[in-house]
Amino acid sequence: MEFKLADIGEGIHEGEVLRWLVHEGDHVEQDAPLVEVQTDKVTAELPSPVAGVIERIVAREGQVVPVGTVLAVIREAHGAPAGDKAAGASAAETTEQARREAPEASGGLASHGAKPAVMQAERADGVKRRALATPHVRALARKLGVDIEEIQGTGPVGRVTEEDVRRFAEGRMAPRPPEEDVAAVEPRAERAGEVAAPPAAPKAGSPKVTSGEPVEEVPLRGLRRRIAEHMVQSKRIIPHATHIDEIEMDALEALRERLRPYAEARGAKLTSLAFFVKAVSIALKEFPYVNASVDEAQERVWLRRYYHIGIAVDTEQGLIVPVVKHADQKSVFEIAQEVSDLARRARENRLSLDEVTGSTFTISNAGALGGLYATPIINYPESAILGIHKMSRRPVVRNDEIVIRNIAHISLSFDHRIIDGGMAIRFTNRVRELLEEPDRMWAELR
Fold it and tell me: Where is this region: Disordered (predicted)?
């Protein structure tokens, strides 16, 4: 059978083969890990869909391949050589076959609570179908100690999703209500839980290397290559503009010190970043275009009525952006605890796909590293990103007197197609007033 790159997660269109965990001629068991694949979000181990022998490895390490590409050929332990088989049973093919078999009346979705006919159905020979799931989801189920065959999938034609596995592991199998409330109907790609493949970046020429000079060649691979592609895409599509301001942090620092013991009692490390996340989630409700994205193909702007805040984390592998979902509905203590947990697991490369996707606005906190200010690049397809920079004690004028205050710089890069300078300044002013007078933050929660 042909082992193909299946859809590792919603919206993934390609992956980079990082490392093969087996060699040609190796015997593998069903669900044994075969290869590590890097997407633009996470690194995933893909397991074998069958037991057998690795007859041929097709995709080489470092190669970027689209979904559906044959990665390897496996000779099944109970069957004939792969060359004698008419077709493989890859995850992608299994899903496509189920989609064709699904009755039209169901619409291919479990959107009305009806269980798709293909879920847990039995073949004519009485053998129960194998649950529809991607290799990444199967690996997650094994990690959480869950039998994936017992899970009723809520994805298209009954496919078991990552969220299904997590809900099952937590003992709450009721389908989660829709979380997206947008100002207009989502584009077709997003309605299907997918994101249109980004346009290919133009290939740059190879730089010339002076003969005889010492040069070290390092492959541009893995997460670093994904970051490079994402940054080029953002700068090529979005006309960036940046507004810079400063915030007096004394009142916030005093409040943080008073609340620190209560946070520690809840197992949370209370940092100023948690307050920034909360202030931003409040301000975004008043400035929906700062929480939006542009759909050029349909000539529409999608105003997100939910508030998922991405937090840029500096790791050895590169910049990773885990997401605090529904930040507007969480307390500062809860946000602080979640940010700490996400940052730790980001550095350990243990984040799931769901934890690094779906952000509507991003915060990049480089204050601990130093520097006066910077112009951060927008996390495409979002419309803005807030940079937090070094806080230091500086002399400022207050009531015609020179006093010492804790001052931090912030910078808001924004999409000038839909956000003008006035809106960017008013949004930043709103965030600043909430942080300079943090008592107002509690008073305005709703």
Answer: 81-115, 174-216
Distance CA 31, CA 139 (A): 8
pLDDT of amino acid 205: 60
Q: How far apart are CA 32 and CA 336, in angstroms?
A: 37
Dist. CA 152–CA 168, nearest whole Å: 9
Q: In 234-360, at which residue ranges do the beta strands (DSSP E only) sit?
A: 240-248, 292-295, 300-303, 309-314, 319-320, 323-324
Query: How would you classify the pairing of strands 361-365 and 309-314?
Result: parallel
CA distance 274 to 54: 49
- The conformation of residue 128, written as its DSSP 8-state character, comes to B
Contact 7, 92 (CB under 8 A): yes
Confidence of residue 405 (pLDDT cuts 50, 70, 90): very high
Q: Is 326 a catalytic residue?
A: no
With bands split at pLDDT 50, 70 and 90, how would you rate the model's confidence at 341? very high
Domain ranges within the chain, ordered by starting residue: 2-169, 223-443
Q: Kindly report which listed range (169-183, 206-220, 338-352) carries the lowest average pLDDT score.
A: 169-183
Chain segment 187-223, per-residue pLDDT in tens? 433 433 444 444 555 555 666 666 677 888 887 777 7
From CA 173, how far away is CA 74, in angstroms rounded? 35
113-117 contact pairs (CB < 8 A, 24+): 113/175, 115/152, 115/158, 116/157, 116/158
In this structure, are residues 160 and 131 in contact, taking their beta carbons and an 8 Å threshold?
yes
Nearest CA-CA partner of 10 in 151, 132, 137 = 137
Cβ(281)–Cβ(435) below 8 Å: no
Q: Read off the pTM.
A: 0.64
CATH number assigned to the domain covering 223-443: 3.30.559.10
Contact between 411 and 387 (Cβ < 8 Å): yes
The owner of tokens 């109970």 is: 78
What's the CA gap between 68 and 429, in Å, rounded? 48
Does domain 2-169 fall under CATH 3.40.190.10? My reply is no
> Is 72 in a helix, a strand, or coil?
strand
Report the distance separating Cα 5 and Cα 14, nearest Å. Answer: 8
Query: Any idea which of 108-117, 142-151, 174-183, 255-264 has the lowest mean pLDDT?
Result: 108-117
- Kindly report, residue by residue over 9-56, the tens digit of the pLDDT: 555 678 888 889 999 999 998 888 898 888 766 777 788 888 899 999
- Which listed residue (78, 136, 326, 416) is catalytic? 416
